[in-house]
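Task 17 of the worksheet. Students: predict the tertiary structure of the chain below and write it out as structure tokens. Keep your answer in the requested format; marks are given for formatting as well as content.
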Amino acid sequence: MNKSALTLAIPNKGRLREPSLRLLKSAGMSFEVTDRALSLRVRNVDVDLVLVRTEDIPGMLIEGVADVGITGLDLMEESDPDGSLAPLVKLDFGFCRLAAAVPNASSIDSLEDLRGLRVATSHPRTTARFLSRRGIPASVVALKGSVEAATKIALADAVVDLVSTGSTLRLNGLRDIGVLLESQAVLAGLPQVRGRRLVRQLVTAVRAVTAGRRKRYLLLNTSVDKTAEISRLMPGLSAPTIVPLDDSEMVAMHSVVDASDLWDLLPRLEDAGGKGILVLDIGQLIP
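Model answer:
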């Protein structure tokens, strides 16, 4: 690998792999990945990609083996108790939560009820740190896998595990009693890498992609007398763009809107006099 290049570590498998690859390509990087690839060179940017286990990425960043990497906030918290790493950009995918759960028949109803009990988890540092901060004395039992089974074999009174939908907990007869950490995928690195030109460029490009995914570009035609009402409905980043049409009584209006607002916004725009409404995806956006 090129010693002057930026080394970017990304997951080699699991649910963060494909979203990470799509994100980097959307950010403008050109590369090809095969199933057996362990490292590869980005063709148009001075960046080397290394594909490794997601859980190994925080340690690689701390040791300086990689400059930046995509991993989960939960893994950062677990692998970096001293807080050496910084999340450079939150990536809006890989959402999950580190939650405490107990058997359905348990009398435990809250995190505070864990006092004096045994808690099994694959995130022992994060769990112990959270309980200590909350003043909840409990015994943390570290496990590598099959955390949900810990209460069934009387190894623990409760578990702390990553939860996405909660279906795995329900299948194992467990119920959620509280959240220790909200997690998602992040672009992470040591604070000192922020000043590197390539890191600044990467952060800008990735942030532009994530911002664009939250927005939509909306275009419509309307009569001049309707512009004030429609401007109120879709103010955009500062104000909508209004373009006169050949018909002197008609204008085109362009604006950037929140993707999450479209369900309610489109019928309101139609009722307000909007016609020929067009909604487009935004590849990248720097507000």
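Marker's comment: Residues 39 and 208 are 25 Å apart (CA to CA). The first strand starts at residue 6 and ends at 11.
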